[in-house]
Amino acid sequence: MTQQAISEETGFEAIRTWLERTCAIHYPPTKRALLHQRLGRAQRSLGMSTLSQMAQALQHADARDVQLAIMHAASTNHTYFYREKDVLGSFRAEVMPLLATRSEIRLWSAACSTGDEVYTLAIMIAEAFGPEALRRTHILGTDISAPVIERAEAGVFPRRQLEQVPDAILRRYMHPVGIDQFRINDEIRAACTFRRMNLKKAPFPFQRPFQAVFCRNVLYYFAHADQVDVVNSVADVTEPGGWLVTSVTENVRELSTRWTPVTSGISRKSERAM
Ligand SMILES: C[S@@+](CC[C@H](N)C(=O)[O-])C[C@H]1O[C@@H](n2cnc3c(N)ncnc32)[C@H](O)[C@@H]1O
């Protein structure tokens, strides 16, 4: 191996370790090629010629731009409206009736990507309780990647992310803007807030608890210890008797005793404060 190849390898490892330590994002050896490709993208966007240069820049106190570029490049942002309809159906049947009479509905989508899940929930609330319920609804969407949070805030979506949305719902809550793009209506938009936030940084900075937290299709990018920490930290900011919604492939029973699985993808916190 040439000196340059050794230094590139060291740079790659330094960034891979930083990603896991700082963002919980774990790239196992089987995904090396994918991470290489993604870091190459970050490197080019920053105008840097090597990975070792990028790894060195990461150590500087003012490395914010480099950190954000790497966080974004390393994350998988695939999402769409009405994802995993079965889990949403269970949420509608098991949980939403209990929210109907609450003076305030507080939900958190903890890795929301471009906000599709957040807007889906707001639409489900409007459909179930009437649009006036949106005035007492606060749905927070957070993600580690800054560009996806910007897109969530813009609330404009290409048709391919809306394929699961029934036509009547599309017409009621969105309007066309440009070619094959749709903008979320203001009444839905007003119930939703977006922030950049890293799930590795606990405790989570919320004053008031959520009734339900969606943490879907993100845990499987984390190592086991980080998955445990995240679901326990989510329990800290969920009210007693509150709910955790994951993907059907993410097994909460194996991660924490603070959540009791209720049905596929849905777990509940004990009624007694823990
Ligand atoms: C596949 S998307 C899931 C989006 C949505 N929850 C869904 O189920 O469709 C995973 C998201 O997790 C975000 N993510 C990864 N690590 C994170 C972390 N440490 N903190 C917050 N978000 C993170 C990524 O940026 C990405 O947007």
Written description of the protein model:
With 274 residues, the chain is of the alpha/beta class. It has two domains: 3-74, Chemotaxis Receptor Methyltransferase Cher, domain 1, CATH 1.10.155; 85-269, Vaccinia Virus protein VP39 (Rossmann fold, 3-Layer(aba) Sandwich). Helices cover 42% and strands 18% of the residues. It has ten helices and ten strands. The strands form two sheets. Strands 6-2-1-7-8-10-9 form a seven-stranded mixed sheet, sandwiched between helices. A three-stranded antiparallel sheet has the order 3-5-4. Helix 1 packs across helix 3. The radius of gyration is 20 Å and the shape is globular. The mean pLDDT is 95. The site of S-adenosylmethionine (SAM) has 24 residues, from loops.
